[in-house]
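Q: I'm writing up a methods section and want to include an example of the input and output format. Could you take the sequence below and give the corresponding predicted structure tokens, formatted cleanly so I can copy it straight into the document?
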Amino acid sequence: MKNLEVPVNSDIHGLGSDKVVDVHGETNAFFDLHGRAVVGRVNDFHCLINMKVNLNKAEISGFKLHYIGGLNMLISFEDDIDASVFVLNTSLWKEWFVSLDIWSGQSLAYARIAWLKFQGVPLQLAENRVFNDIAALFGKVVKGSSLSLDDWDLSSSYVGVLVDHGASIVGTATLKWKNKKFKVWIMEEQEIWVPDCMLEEERKSRNYGSDMEVRNSEEGNDSSSEEDGESEVRSDNELDESTGMQDLERPESISPPLGTEQSKGINADDGHNSVFIGTARGIDDEFISKNGGIRRG
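A: Here is the clean output for your methods example:
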């Protein structure tokens, strides 16, 4: 897949020549996916966040999504036959991907989506096209600003840009309007963002450990209550009180049921509901929910 290949270049942005790590020649991560996974770059941001929905609508089964940064996605299948059939069905995937190929360990160009936040844009200039024009100075805009009167905070906005480096973005710009100039500060949002099509995989990995803890705890309570009748009565009373406390002060190790921390935000462009995973953190959660993603970590 030529458009995803990256040449070996000692002048890669941000890579210093003073620090070198020698990697063993036989290193070959995720070798078991060779032949039974496909890798490609999606057409746009909406194809990225809706990838699982699109695959399900096309009645594709037995797949798992792996986000690999930028607009790139890796899709693994149960065997190499399913992967080959999917790649050969060009009329299907061309609606979602610019290009698609079987994963065989090829080098992929580094890319990521950086979420830029803007401060200092005066209210009379706070149009989405202004924010997008500022963001275009730092990368290719893939998710434009969606600021509206429905937002409670009109002092800033977010824009997603595609970049080919890992350095955190911080900068300034000057807006010229009529005979006035306004200085604007640009900084990158530091939350780790992944497309919300990865939600199910994220919940499974998080809830597995919590489910095991709950199950072990329940088994422990059952065994202790069988010692004698008087002990069993006290155990039941203590369990009720403990359960009440858990509803008010839920331990961090136990994930809340889906919906208790569901964002109220809906993607402004396509109405796609977004759910984040993690402790509520105010404006950060609004940012994630409006931009089709979930918090990881």
